[in-house]
Amino acid sequence: MSHPHHHATSPELARLTLGFVPLLDAALLIVARERGCFADQGLDVSLSRENAWATLRDKVAAGLLDGAQMLAPMPLAMSLGLGRAPCDTLAPLLLSRNGNTVTLSTALSEASGATLGDAPVVSALALGNWLRSPGNGKRPRLAMVYPYSCQHYQLREWLTLGDIDPERHVELVALPPPRMVEALRSGEIDGFCAGEPWGTLARHCGAGRLVATGDQLWPGHPEKVLGVTRSWAEHYPATLAALLRALVAASEWLAASPANRRQARDWLALPPYLDRALDHLPTLPLSEAPVDQRFSQLRPEAGEMARVVDHLARQFDVPLRRGVVDACYSPVHFDAATHQGCA
Questions:
Q1: H or E segment at 20?
Q2: Most CB atoms closer than 10 Å: which of 173, 196, 203, 317?
Q3: Residues 208 and 113 in one domain
């Protein structure tokens, strides 16, 4: 029930539902709910776990979700109508940076000698040289989470470092992140690029080895964003501002102490969120090697998306209009909500 006597800055929606995929970088959404940051802003937020990115995308476009954790390229892909009808979508806040791993099956890592080193070129060349040696007929099948994702583009860049042609020398498939470890263990795939905790979980249970990280390939790059449709943002500007302030508060709380990161890990490990997938992590690792995942510096900037834009343009052989990119990743809502740049 909305109150009839809202003052101008009260959220237009008292209740809303945000989607997430079970990954460590849903952390700010989960912290903001469990810690009461959303409630402090007058919002009653439900979190809806979606196991595949395509489902989440469709639900946001259809208005079944008010917004969601999204892969950084997804608002742009949605706005351009890649993979479905066009739907103008915005990324008014960054939820995370880094957090991906390239993980190979233990068997492939051992056979090829590809292991995590100081530079990703070393493991890529180890795999490439092994693939080029006589008698290795079968193309490895490598999974990424979604065609329009940093995971897909980072995996391609890593392969290219080893002179491996992503089109000819390997088979690339898309799989939802929660399926990666089981698919690796069962031999359905030979490796994957996905966000945490799935890479370290594969390592923990003996199914895989980390051979490169997103932080090595694209240091500090925006990984997940809050995504809302443009029409939702225009209908509910005060609700959006309250959401952004709550997520900034969650980020500041998370950064404040190791005890908070332990608490956050316990919240993420609750059954509605990531459940048993976090049993191998003692705390929510922030800025720790090798993954160096960060939940800070939340202000979006179109310039930071240049690598994603290059990949999308190559994927579709179309030049992307600067205006579309600027609109998707504009900091205007963030700045208004947090009064950045005001005296």
A1: strand 15-20
A2: 196
A3: yes
CA–CA distance, 29 with 249 (Å, rounded to integer): 11
Average pLDDT rounded to a whole number, residues 173-202 = 97
Instruction: Please say whether the dihedral angle defined by the alpha carbons of residues 228, 234, 235 and 236, taken in this order, is positive or negative.
Output: positive
Residue 292, domain CATH: 3.40.190.10
Cβ atoms within 10 Å of 316's Cβ, excluding its own: 13
**26 part of a folded domain:** yes
- The answer for residues whose C-beta is within 8 angstroms of residue 35's C-beta and 6 or more apart is 250, 253, 267
219 vs 213: CA distance, rounded Å? 9
Contact 268, 274 (CB under 8 A): yes
Residue 140 has what DSSP assignment? P
H runs (alpha helix) in 164-236: 180-186, 198-204, 214-217, 230-235
User: pLDDT tens digits for 87-100?
Assistant: 999 999 999 999 99
| Residues contacting residue 119 through CB under 8 Å, at least 6 positions apart | 216
Residue 60 and residue 121: Cα distance in Å, rounded? Answer: 38
Cα 76 to its chain centre, rounded Å, is: 14
Give the residue numbers spanning the domain of 151. Answer: 101-217
User: Pairing mode, if any, of strands 67-71 and 15-20?
Assistant: parallel
C-alpha span between 100 and 160 (Å, rounded): 17
| 7: pLDDT strictly greater than 60 | no
d(CA 180, CA 338): 37
CA-to-CA distance for 179 and 185, rounded, in angstroms? 10
Report the candidate in 62, 65, 56 with the shortest Cα–Cα distance to residue 23. 56
Question: Same domain for 76 and 108?
Answer: no
Q: What is the pLDDT of residues 42-85, one digit of tens each?
A: 999 999 999 999 999 999 999 999 999 999 999 999 999 988 88
